């Protein structure tokens, strides 16, 4: 994910809603405690390839996946040109439309498990 793809700055944590103070937290959208909970979320990663896990974590760290409703998220594409609606079991990205598991779905699972 390139830095130009995520220019939105968050003032409140996307997980807990607390005010963010550090520049890193504002850029990612998660405070340090919530970021740690997301990193350590108990999700079975065995169904995903290593590059999908890395992409999902990068999507979260870049603040490029934002909650829309209880289990639905808006995720930015890897090149930053498109956004997709995603949930833990479905996504409207090209891979998701083909019925494949995508890293957007994994990112949604990680966020919900945290």
From TrEMBL:
Domain of life: Bacteria
Ranges for domain SWIM-type: 72-113
InterPro entries on file: DUF6011 (IPR046053), Znf_SWIM (IPR007527)
Sorted UniProt keywords: Metal-binding, Zinc, Zinc-finger
Pfam families: DUF6011 (PF19474)
Name of the protein in question: SWIM-type domain-containing protein
Gene source species: Streptomyces graminofaciens
Lineage, opening ranks: Bacteria, Bacillati, Actinomycetota, Actinomycetes, Kitasatosporales
């Amino acid at each position: 994910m390139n830095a130009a793809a995520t220019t939105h700055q968050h003032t409140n944590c996307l997980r807990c809603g607390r005010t963010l103070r550090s520049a890193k937290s504002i850029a990612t959208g998660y405070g340090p405690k919530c970021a740690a909970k997301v990193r350590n979320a108990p999700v079975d990663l065995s169904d995903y390839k290593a590059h999908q896990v890395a992409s999902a974590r990068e999507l979260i760290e870049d603040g490029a996946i934002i909650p829309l409703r209880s289990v639905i998220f808006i995720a930015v594409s890897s090149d930053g040109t498109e956004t997709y609606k995603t949930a833990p079991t479905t996504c409207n990205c090209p891979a998701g439309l083909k019925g494949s598991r995508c890293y957007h779905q994994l990112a949604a699972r990680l966020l919900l498990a945290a």
